[in-house]
Amino acid sequence: MKHFKIKKIVKKIFKKFKLSDKHAEISSEYLIKAELVGAPSHGLARLKMYCERLKKKIINPKPKIKIKKISSSIAHIDGNDGIGFVAADIGIKLAIKNAKKTGISLVAIKNSGHYGLSSFYAEQAVNKNLIVFCFTNAPPAIAPYGSKKKLFGTNPICFGTPTGNKIPFILDTSVSVINRGKIRVAAKLGHKIPLGVALDKFGKPTTDAKRALKGVQLPIAGFRGSGLAWMVDIMSGVLTGANHGGKVKDPFDDFSGPQNVGHLFLVLKPNLFVGKNYIRRIRQNIRTIKKLPKIKGVQEILYPGQGINSRYKKNLKKGIVIQKNILEDIKKLNAVK
Hints:
With 337 residues, this protein is α+β, with helices and mostly antiparallel strands. The chain has eleven helices and nine strands. The protein has a seven-stranded mixed β-sheet with strand order 1-2-3-9-4-5-6, with helices on both faces. It has a two-stranded antiparallel ribbon with strand order 7-8. It is globular and about 55 Å long. It starts with a helix and ends with a helix.
């Protein structure tokens, strides 16, 4: 299905669940873009969840978002339990605006929700010729190193920079071996997950997605990945005033109240220290790495952002393939009066 057709339907559904036209537009845009970049775990598979939370008013459909200006470079946003896409979209746009004026900007957000892929916010800053860091925490999925109980989220780390090329450098990675969304989609579709990404509730390795969701996910690089998850929990939870330390509610399974997810955006001009030389230097950096001898079977050493850009262009042409059960969910939601 062509992306613009399904986006129109998704926007209509969000409006049925009382989002304003503007907020429905933002939310549908982020969901459809996740499909286009080849990340369906963050796309239409989540639509039903958002609508259920909106229906129960656990997501506030009409949030009164407050922005507290701390300085010309620093702001604190209260998302008022609205849908995460909206608070984060306001936050990154404010961070970009402030960084353009002052050279560096920090925006913290509390009382938000799951905001999709961090790379979408990073991309906005990079397109304005800015460097960006994005942090957000998530519901418990990873056990801290040495513990058998999950507490940290898959807590993604995202960094973006202009490159002087059409394709920006954007690294967006969770600190788990695979993101939780992929396991949820596998559970929904009855697919197996790879061995070595999760343990069941008894602490045994599993390829069963449903058992993995009841157990724990494994972090990248052992205690190092656990440490990175902890760092993101501090940056986006402790620092911002949002939930942290395992208190972020699971949007699929916990309807006892709002998630209170925290986000943190740090945006800066690339010319702060080396002036106009930054683009020359980043180009040199990328060229050096791309010229390295390649292992067998590798045609090109890609920098983060090239793969997602390729998938986006490909899917933009061929359209979005929607799984049958997810398509049924969309049809039911669209039929809601």
